[in-house]
Write a structure and sequence with these properties.
With 296 residues, the protein is of the alpha+beta class. The chain has 2 domains: 53 residues; 165 residues, L,D-transpeptidase catalytic domain-like (Beta Barrel). The chain has 8 helices and 8 strands, in the order H-H-H-H-H-E-E-E-E-E-E-H-E-H-E-H. The chain has an 8-stranded mixed beta sheet. Strand 6, helix 6 and strand 7 form a beta-alpha-beta unit. Helix 1 runs antiparallel to helix 4 and helix 4 crosses helix 5.
Length: 296
């Protein structure tokens, strides 16, 4: 409304500028008559301007109509753009899922006890991170399926290029995430829980657990405190068949995804420096709100 009133004011000013010379000229020729009669009044000039043939209200109404038409045109264009974007996203998602299914079948992952859902989500996140340039080492995808019991070999190191499993091994979860099964997850410091989501691997170092691999959480709100919490991949003697047979349950950690010591010196150098690492669990909240999964 402020813009329309401003435009109306501009129209009236232009009318004044265009008509004033003519009206003044006409008034000049009658000056003597007005003067002699003593009836000349500046209001006569104003009346002529106000009674000009062009209606200011009509001009304002027309301006409003044009503004409305332009707004409707812009909204229609935006709607078309949104529809095209949605169609492109659906097509891309279908392509990703078809590729995931093909990979799943070729590697016979069902017989390796990795669920199709776990792999589909892993492949979708891997695809999104690859597209965003977050992965330096694109030929490797590691999946920890925490929907499985810790007594199962539930960590899969996959060679994406050659479509094969390089390693399938045990992996521990946080002590406060559960005993045999992990069911509770956290991004908070000192929670001693595992964090769901996608990570990118960073550099290795030697610590109290020997060769260890730093990982950076990429799912904000779910695992982005991993670096601050010192969540790393490392070898552990308590993640082994010996411990499982002795105590009937696998060892747990302060939140780190620890793997058996006998394979850690092989797996960690393979994974380091920019590969995709994914911890899966069928959490409705995570799957619906994951920044990585929902970034097509």
């Amino acid at each position: 409304m402020k813009n329309i009133n401003y435009n109306c004011a501009k129209v009236l000013m232009m009318l004044f500028i265009l008509t004033a010379p003519a009206i003044l000229a006409a008034g000049k020729s009658k000056t003597a008559t007005y003067t002699s009669r003593g009836n000349y009044n500046s209001a006569d000039l104003i009346k002529k301007i106000i009674n000009y043939n062009v209606s200011a209200e009509a001009v304002c109404a027309r301006a409003a109509e044009l503004a409305k038409a332009e707004a409707e045109k812009a909204e229609a264009a935006a709607a078309v753009k949104r529809a095209m974007r949605l169609a492109a996203m659906k097509a891309e998602y279908k392509m990703v899922m078809n590729t995931a299914l093909g990979m799943y079948d070729i590697m016979d992952l069902e017989n390796e006890d990795l669920s199709l859902k776990a792999f589909e989500y892993a492949w979708l996140g891997y695809h999104n991170l690859l597209k965003q340039g977050k992965l330096r080492k694109s030929d490797l995808l590691t999946i920890c399926d925490f929907s499985q019991s810790s007594s199962k070999e539930r960590m899969y190191v996959i060679d994406v290029r050659n479509k094969k499993i390089l390693y399938k091994t045990f992996v521990a979860h946080g002590i406060n995430s559960g005993e045999e099964y992990a069911s509770s997850f956290s991004n908070q410091e000192e929670s001693c829980k595992s964090s769901l989501g996608f990570y990118v691997t960073r550099k290795t170092y030697y610590g109290v657990n020997g060769l260890s691999l730093r990982i950076e959480g990429l799912d904000k709100g779910f695992n982005d405190n991993a670096y601050k919490r010192s969540i790393v991949i490392h070898g552990a003697s308590y993640v082994s068949l010996r411990i499982l047979h002795k105590y009937g349950v696998m060892g747990t950690t302060f939140g780190c995804p620890a793997i058996p010591s006998e394979v850690s010196n092989e797996i960690i150098p393979l994974m380091k420096n920019g590969s995709c690492f994914f911890i899966y669990y069928p959490s409705k909240k995570y799957l619906a709100q994951s920044p990585v999964l929902n970034s097509l």
